[in-house]
């Protein structure tokens, strides 16, 4: 995600994530946001009216490569 603020005021970009995920779920992009395994958000330059650009990609399953915290002990 690239967040383009509507002006130069200070904003917390992490506060925008939940609403975007909820909107994507409502639009039918995925069934539930628990399906999101990786997320990145960066701040873009301010633009009139503000905007957010979302790039959605399916990532290959890495469950066999990533161990759970219990497996590390």
Structural class: alpha+beta
**Helical amount among residues, as a percent range?**
10-25%
| Shape call | elongated
Major sheet characteristics: 3 strands, mixed
Which blocks of ≥5 consecutive residues have pLDDT under 50? none
Count the DSSP helices. Answer: 2
**How many E strands?**
3
If you compute it from the alpha carbons, what radius of gyration comes out, rounded to the nearest whole angstrom?
16 Å
Strand line-up of the largest beta sheet = 2-1-3
Q: Could you tell me how far the N terminus lies from the C terminus, measured between alpha carbons in angstroms? A: 34 Å
Series of secondary-structure elements, N-terminal to C-terminal? EHEEH
Proportion of strand residues: 5-15%
What's the rounded overall pLDDT mean? Answer: 86
Outline:
With 73 residues, this protein is of the alpha+beta class.
How is the topology of this model organized?
Blueprint: E1 2-4, H1 17-26, E2 42-43, E3 51-53, H2 69-72
Parallel strand pairs: 1-2
Antiparallel strand pairs: 1-3
Question: What key attributes describe this structure?
Answer:
73 residues; alpha+beta; 3-stranded mixed sheet; 19% helix; elongated
Structure report:
- This protein has 73 residues and is α+β, with helices and mostly antiparallel strands.
- Helices cover 19% and strands 11% of the residues.
- The protein has two helices and three strands.
- The chain has helices spanning 17-26, 69-72; strands spanning 2-4, 42-43, 51-53.
- The protein has a three-stranded mixed beta sheet, with no helix packed on it.
- The relative contact order is 0.28.
- The model has no long low-confidence stretch (mean pLDDT 86).
């Amino acid at each position: 995600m690239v967040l383009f603020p509507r002006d130069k005021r200070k904003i917390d970009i992490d506060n925008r994530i939940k609403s975007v995920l909820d909107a994507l779920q409502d639009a039918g992009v995925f069934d539930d946001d628990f399906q999101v395994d990786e997320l990145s958000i960066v701040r873009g330059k301010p633009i009139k009216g503000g905007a957010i650009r979302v790039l959605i990609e399916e990532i290959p399953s890495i469950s066999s490569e990533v161990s759970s915290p219990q497996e590390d002990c």
